[in-house]
Structure formats: C-alpha cells, structure tokens
C-alpha cells in the first residue's frame, strides 16, 4: 500500500466512516470484490418521502410551459 501512496495512485482517506473490502478468488481465478456497508447503513438518514419514478417526472416536465428559478 505504501508504494501506491508514494506513486500517487491512492491517497490517505479523511472520511469519517470506512467500509471493509474483501477480495475473493473465483473459480476462473479472477477476483470478486465484497464491500461491507453495515456501518454506513447504521448512520444513513432514511428518506421520509418516496422518490418519484423518472418517467413520471419527465411526463410532468413535458407538459410544463413556464419555467422559473
């Protein structure tokens, strides 16, 4: 890891949270990545409202004739 930092490919993280990352070899010798997001899920603020479907939002936008900021 020190070589990657010295070469500038990675930099030390200043994030408040981290997630452990594991690599597992597959049958064909390639690697599969596994990330444990349980710590993120504990601190994530859940949405109070449902998110609209993108098609519904586009339909509403197409019928609009006045746009303001």
Oligomer: single chain
Percent of residues in beta strands?
Answer: 5-15%
- Overall shape: it is elongated
Number of strands: 2
Count of helical stretches = 3
Estimate percent helicity: 25-40%
Please state how the strands of the largest beta sheet are arranged side by side.
1-2
What's the arrangement of secondary structure elements?
Layout: H1 2-7, E1 21-25, E2 31-35, H2 38-43, H3 54-62
Antiparallel strand pairs: 1-2
Would you give an account of this structure?
The protein is 30% helix and 14% strand. It is an alpha+beta fold. It has a domain at 16-44. Strands 1-2 form a two-stranded antiparallel sheet. The chain starts with a helix and ends in a 7-residue tail after the last helix. The model has no long low-confidence stretch (mean pLDDT 84).
Overview in brief:
This protein has three helices and two strands.
Keywords:
3 helices, 30% helix, two-stranded antiparallel ribbon, alpha+beta, 14% strand, single chain, 69 residues
């Amino acid at each position: 890891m020190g070589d990657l930092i010295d070469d500038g490919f990675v930099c030390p993280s200043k994030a408040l949270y981290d997630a452990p990352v594991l690599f597992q070899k597959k049958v064909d010798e390639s690697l599969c990545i596994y990330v444990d997001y349980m710590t993120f899920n504990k601190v994530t603020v859940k949405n109070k409202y449902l998110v609209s479907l993108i098609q519904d939002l586009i339909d509403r936008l197409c019928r609009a004739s006045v746009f303001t900021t």
